[in-house]
Amino acid sequence: MITSKQNKKLKELNKIIDQKCSDNSLYALEGFTIFEEAIRENVEIVDVYVSESAENEFRSRYNQLYTTVKDDILRSLSKTKTGKDIIFVVKKPSKINIKEINDELVLLLDFLQDPGNLGTIIRTADAFGIKNILTVNNCVNVYNEKVLRSTMGSIFRVNVTSIELDDLRSLIERGYKLISTSPNGEKIAKFKFKTILALGNEANGISEEVFRESFKRVKIPMKGKTESLNVAIAAGISIYIMTEE
């Protein structure tokens, strides 16, 4: 059992949690609920750390190698207020080949900065069967612990890939049409062509360089006095409209 914060494995775990580890192929998650989700999705689990008080429960439920850690030490590594009884490390999925994307609807996130927004959008995309989200212009790191927590396990089912503008142009050349959200756009609707739906930065919206590649600009019509919606809420409404049967 690990009883010291100075333990070498725990120091390495802390670096993985903060995404400061030399091995960039790993990330960490917390909690039994998301651990079970990882098992169901056959995610490659590399290491498991269980609190001393939760060890018996873990052994009775899972056939998985683990390391026991003193309760207060493991919970001190947790990013949640109450702390968690399990932290586990998994392998990041291989980066997808942009040329292999062939979905009817793909999301493009332009310079999104709030981890909660990104996590919520990933979860929403999963709920509507969207498999690919592309990010451009230095969006928040998808492996930020707040992003991961907000996805509630959807991170295992949705590919989130950072791309360059040239990658976006290559998708457009293959027949995709870029639809960008804008307060000056036309009413959003379901389209009959392969679509990349772009959503922009929380404060400034979509960048001019992405707008220049757009086939059409769209907006969500609103009846009240609010001028704009949170980007995650706008994403949910837009996806619903564009995938409605």
UniProtKB/TrEMBL annotation:
The organism named in the record is Ezakiella coagulans
Database matches in Pfam families: SpoU_methylase
Q: Does the keyword Transferase apply?
A: yes
Q: Name one GO biological process term.
A: methylation
What protein name does the entry list?
TrmH family RNA methyltransferase
Give the Gene Ontology MF terms in alphabetical order: RNA binding; RNA methyltransferase activity
Q: Which UniProt keywords apply?
A: Methyltransferase, Transferase
Q: Which CDD domains match?
A: SpoU-like_rRNA-MTase
Annotated ranges, domain tRNA/rRNA methyltransferase SpoU type = 105-240
InterPro entries per UniProt: Alpha/beta_knot_MTases, Ribosomal_eL30-like_sf, rRNA_Methyltransferase, SpoU_MeTrfase, tRNA_m1G_MTases_N
Sequence intervals crossing the membrane: none
